[in-house]
Specification:
Blueprint: H1 5-22, H2 31-38, H3 50-68, H4 71-77, H5 87-90, H6 101-117, E1 163-164, E2 176-177, E3 188-190, E4 194-199, E5 202-207, E6 212-218, E7 225-233, E8 236-243, E9 249-256, E10 264-272, E11 274-281, E12 284-292, E13 300-301, E14 304-305, H7 307-310, E15 313-316, E16 319-322, E17 328-330, E18 340-348, E19 357-362, E20 367-370, E21 374-382, E22 399-407, E23 414-422, E24 431-434, E25 437-443, E26 448-453, E27 459-466, E28 471-478, E29 481-487, E30 490-497, E31 505-513, E32 515-522, E33 525-534, E34 537-548, E35 556-563, E36 566-568, E37 575-578, E38 583-592, E39 597-608, E40 611-618, E41 654-658, E42 661-665, E43 669-674, E44 682-685
Parallel strand pairs: 17-19
Antiparallel strand pairs: 1-2, 3-4, 4-5, 5-6, 7-8, 8-9, 9-10, 10-15, 11-12, 12-18, 13-14, 15-16, 18-19, 20-21, 21-22, 22-23, 24-25, 25-26, 26-27, 28-29, 29-30, 30-31, 32-33, 33-34, 34-35, 36-38, 37-38, 38-39, 39-40, 41-42, 42-43, 43-44
């Protein structure tokens, strides 16, 4: 928690002073000795370990209780005085804004009482500060345990896109995003001259033409900070990561890269919680994190929690402050009351004053959908059992999808309404905003359905009974049509007409083996990436389907491409769209039976005139002993070999292109090839 040792010291000193005036205490628990214990030292100045401190302090307090009969006082002072969730929260049907601190204090105090009374996550004795006592060891002077170090991970959250965030005429690759004018973070970026690669807690800038490493910049402060994604905006490089040093914090660090050889850090901002998601809209980064306050760890003083302990904080260039209660909205609570905040900040990359604006909501989220005007946070509403209130997982029939909408006018994210639909949404592709309406596809236990909400998030239409007994595998909206793939044994592709938003209808259907787990618009076609199958279900092959959707009433699979012993990646950012050159690339996992391991490769296809033509398959798992440069052929066979020492580092993470050159990026190298296939041009190892 955020309470300092100085707070503890002053508290115990103030409570002992009136006692000392009336009693002559034994030396080991006199005021000065006890204060020294709180400070973590023996009277001779020797530093105490935490376990010894807890034992001695607890013994001192126990003696004090015996001497003055203060047990009742201690119990009442450190016990929650608020036992029930405040009615203003318990009975809320809409988001509550403009709150004062007391409502949060009372709410979390009640959560503490609930967890304490039900013995949930709050087992064993506690010390004077409400902290759980450590388990005793045989060695009274055992050394303190070293803090655990977090490990940085590459972000793999799933989002999708109709086109890149760059112009259709730009002849270089960009992150595949859901909306044309809303960029998403990625582990590589490309400006047509340089390629920016985020791996191993550093950002590497590579001059694409010469394949030279221009600079390498560490983007962490210590071993517990990991970089997860980045944005490129003009001469500013934005790095996002999570710091697990004490409590998880999401960090955003800005670098001036006007000199690519010497990136200069200009600003540093952090907010409490693990990284959730982000977007870049009109020069503003929208940064989301999830911050959980664990009820069993809440400390109680005079019967109440402290606001600073249960509210999230932010830090601008090292200066920390707690978010004002006026900037925190409270979402309607379920039977399981939330103790998680979604912290939301906007960072204006064009404002030299660097003044991020932060707000938050008390309530959880599972998916994020962000348009140029609105931010949607999607949550699941589950049923709960009567009794201890513990979370119970149910089938999708017991789950509804809750949609919270926010605006970000003037850079401040504000609640703008809540809606709810039956069933569970698959991912952010399931939701789309068009002409003031929201259309969303969900799965119930019996069937699937499409729901349309108006600008007030009220239901205006519902199309249910779709594919009984099957589940949604992928969704894509293109203009006034929606495309939904469900699966049980075969792959039905449904075409939904939204010409009249209040009367959506299925106008076309196609059944084929397997299913598509991702749908991608491509030069008037619809490309499905997923799993091959037969009449009995799926097989061990990856399938690329090319759908002709020119006639919505008669969708057709006009061509397909199969890769045996392979599976598709689930992250849409692994798709490389080079549609102006009729080329589509995607990263996939392929099992190499002769080598006995799974390699991650890039496949590129030429899609034109209703035909799929394979260009090549690319792996970065290169054996340094092989002298001959790898060459790729349309059948997918290559002269790349298994690097026995570090093949996992050779897994292709992303692919991009600049003009006629293709680049494959893995953790330890970047390789370049002719875009239309052929021998490797160059390779740079990190």
């Amino acid at each position: 928690m955020k309470k300092t040792d100085k707070d503890n010291l002053n508290f115990i000193k103030n409570k002992l002073e009136p006692v000392n005036e009336k009693l002559t205490l034994p030396a080991e628990i006199a005021e000065n000795a006890t204060v020294a214990l709180v400070a973590g030292k023996e009277q001779n100045g020797k530093k105490l370990g935490r376990k010894r401190l807890v034992r001695r302090l607890s013994a001192a307090v126990a003696a004090l209780v015996v001497l003055v009969g203060a047990g009742a006082w201690v119990n009442s002072y450190f016990s929650p005085a608020v036992k029930e969730i405040p009615s203003v929260i318990a009975d809320a049907e809409f988001a509550i804004s403009g709150n004062d601190e007391q409502i949060f204090v009372d709410y979390f105090t009640a959560l503490k009482a609930e967890y304490k009374n039900n013995n949930r996550f709050y087992y064993g004795a506690v010390n004077l500060f409400g902290e759980k006592l450590e388990v005793e060891t045989d060695d009274m002077f055992a050394a303190e345990e070293a803090p655990q170090s977090g490990i940085g991970t590459i972000n793999s959250s799933v989002t999708t896109g109709t086109s890149s965030a760059l112009s259709d005429h730009a002849d270089f690759g960009a992150t595949n995003t859901q909306y044309f004018n809303v960029d998403e973070d990625d582990i590589i970026k490309n400006d047509g001259k340089y390629i920016y690669i985020l791996s191993d807690w550093s950002v590497k800038i590579v001059e694409a033409k010469t394949m030279k490493l221009v600079s390498k910049t560490d983007v962490y402060y210590n071993s517990t900070t990991g970089a997860e994604g980045m944005y490129l905006y003009g001469e500013t490089l934005v790095i996002i990561g999570t710091d697990w040093d004490k409590e998880p914090k999401t960090r955003i660090i800005l670098y001036d890269i006007s000199d690519r050889k010497n990136p200069v850090k200009t600003n540093d901002f952090s907010q409490d919680g693990n990284y959730f998601s982000s977007r870049l809209v009109d020069g503003r980064v929208i940064l989301l994190s999830q911050y959980t306050v664990y009820p069993e760890e809440i400390e109680i003083y005079a019967g109440k929690a402290k606001y600073e302990d249960i509210a999230p904080s932010v830090a601008i260039n090292g200066t920390e402050e707690t978010i004002s209660s006026q900037m925190i909205s409270i979402l309607p609570q379920d039977d399981i009351n939330s103790s998680t905040y979604v912290v939301m900040s906007t960072v204006d990359l064009e404002n030299p004053e660097f003044e991020p604006k932060t707000s938050a909501i008390l309530g959880n989220g599972r998916e994020v959908n962000c348009t140029a005007n609105n931010l949607y946070i999607i949550a699941d509403r589950y049923e709960t059992k009567e009794g201890n209130g513990e979370f119970v997982s149910f089938s999708p029939s017991s789950v509804n999808t809750v949609i919270h909408r926010f605006t970000f006018k003037n850079g401040v994210i504000e609640a703008d309404g809540t809606g709810e639909v039956e069933g569970r949404m698959l991912n952010q592709f399931s939701l789309d905003e068009r002409d003031g309406y929201i259309r969303i596809a969900t799965t119930l236990s019996e069937y699937n359905q499409i729901t349309v909400l108006d600008k007030n998030l009220k239901q205006v239409a519902k199309l249910d009974g779709i594919a009984p007994g099957e589940t949604i595998q992928s969704v894509r909206y293109i203009g006034k049509y929606g495309y939904v793939v469900t699966f049980l044994q075969t792959d039905p592709l449904f075409v939904i007409d939204f010409t009249d938003m209040k009367k959506p209808k299925i106008v076309g259907e196609l059944k084929i083996p397997g299913f598509s787990s991702y749908l991608h618009p491509f030069n008037g076609y619809l490309v499905g990436i997923g799993t091959d199958g037969d009449e009995t279900g799926t097989t061990d092959a990856l399938k690329i389907s090319l759908f002709d959707i020119s006639d919505p009433t008669k969708p057709q699979e006009i061509d397909r491409f199969i890769i045996k012993n392979a599976t598709a990646q689930t992250n849409h950012k692994t798709v490389m769209d080079c549609s102006h050159r009729d080329i589509l690339g995607f990263i996939y996992n392929e099992y190499e039976p002769t080598l006995g391991y799974m390699d991650t490769k890039l496949c590129t296809l030429k899609i034109k005139d209703g035909k799929i033509e394979p260009i090549g398959s690319y792996s970065n798992s290169y054996d340094k002993e092989q002298k001959e440069a790898p060459e790729y052929t349309p059948d997918g066979k290559t002269t790349f070999y298994y690097d026995k020492e570090s093949y996992s580092n050779g897994a292709v993470k992303r692919a991009t292109y600049i003009h006629d050159t293709l680049y494959t990026v893995s953790a330890n190298r970047i390789c370049s090839y002719p875009l239309y296939g052929g021998k490797m041009i160059d390779m740079l190892e990190f």
